[in-house]
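Protein modeling request. Please complete all fields; requests missing the sequence field cannot be processed.
Requester role: graduate student
Desired output: 3D structure, token encoding
Chains: 1
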Amino acid sequence: MEDTGLYLRHMRETAPLVHNITNYVAMNIMANVVLAAGASPAMVHAREEVGEFAGLAQALTVNIGTLDSDWADAMETAARVMSGQGRPWVLDPVGVGATSFRQDVCARLLDLRPDVIRGNASEILALAGVASTGRGADAADPVEAAEAAARELSHQTGAVVAVSGPVDYITDGAVAYRVRNGHALMPRITALGCSLNGVIAAFLVGQPALPATVAALAYYGVAGERAAQAAQGPGSFQVGFLDALHALTPEEVTAGARVEAA
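Delivered output (262 residues):
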């Protein structure tokens, strides 16, 4: 995929408002990540206002990490608004295989047609109904083990499916890419994966889902590689990562992206 950085340029020129219903752990870092990338984050989950607010946003992310019944209702309400208005939204099925409650909520959310489903290999396997060895929100399966499940899940839902890992796998069921960008320190920062959802959602606004998702993951990974150059550990890496997201140019993303057809 060529000119990956063009998707970053479009996102920054659009500066979309991204509505995020995410977990308590992720809210602060996710808001900072989306701001650093060039979009505008909002963290709104109250049932009393979530539908109205979704009508104002240009994209939505739904993360079931700290799920309860009220949040589940809010997620469905917001997703229904986005789907009804033809606006993109991203589903992160955190720990979906851990409990029947999470499985039931994700089944209802899948009926609302997310544009992108992003999770680790164990989550994608569980969401597709395939046995996995995940531990809560942690993956215990390699990305390669979930590739066939990702393609099948994409066929079932119409969504682009992104399997996050050391090498990301992204497919629309017919075409697939691998993104080899990133750094080993990235999983050492809590909620950095959750925060990626907001960047993907921002890239989706006004851009086709598959290449926009690929470009978002490449941009995120290039930022991780840059941050690691000066990092002394996870703490300094987190600060450097926000700086890298902010400073990277479209040209640098295009030059640094390691994307290949799968």
